Amino acid sequence: MASYARARISDAVTRGLHYSGAFAASRQLLRRTSAVILRYHSVCEDAGSPLSYIDPGLSVPLEAFDRQMKFLRERYAPVSLDDVVEAVVDGRPLPHLAVAVTFDDGYLDNHQYAFPVLKKYGIAGAF
């Protein structure tokens, strides 16, 4: 009878931890070499800027990009892509909530608009 009660209590505790999100949270804490990698394509001057070289759906207006980078600086731990690679290769931990910012394709607007915002918030970018 006692073993049955223990099994039922254990099952209830396990289910409680699962449905409360505690297991998911513990997995996040245990993954010490994980990071989110954000990939951008283009940063345009404003939402109405015509972009002849890229699909408008792949471009972020400068004002929105600035807000996003401010949010990352305030709530996450921005790291460089090199930091992520080195941590994985060396097996060393990354900061909690590590995030790297990258740009695909190397459009001129990455330098004109994105780079100054990254510099403003002290965030490394991989271009």
Rg from Cα = 21 Å
How does the major sheet shape up? 4 strands, parallel
Shape: elongated
Q: What percentage of residues falls in helices of 4 or more residues?
A: 40-55%
Give me the strand/helix succession: HHEEEHEHEHE
Protein structure class:
alpha/beta
The strand count comes to 6
Q: What is the end-to-end distance?
A: 64 Å
Model regions low in confidence, pLDDT < 50 over at least 5 residues: none
- Number of helical elements: 5
Beta-strand content: 15-25%
Q: How much is the average pLDDT?
A: 83
Can you tag this structure with a few keywords?
about 130 residues, alpha/beta, four-stranded parallel β-sheet, two-stranded parallel sheet, 5 helices
Give an overview in words.
This protein is α/β, with parallel strands linked by helices and 127 residues long. 52% of the residues lie in helices and 17% in strands. The protein has helices at 2-20, 22-30, 62-75, 81-90, 108-121, and strands at 36-40, 42-44, 59-61, 77-78, 98-103, 125-126. Strands 1, 4, 5 and 6 form a 4-stranded parallel beta sheet that branches. A two-stranded parallel sheet has the order 2-3. β4 (77-78), α4 (81-90) and β5 form a beta-alpha-beta unit. α3 packs parallel to α5. The N and C termini lie far apart (64 Å). The mean pLDDT is 83.
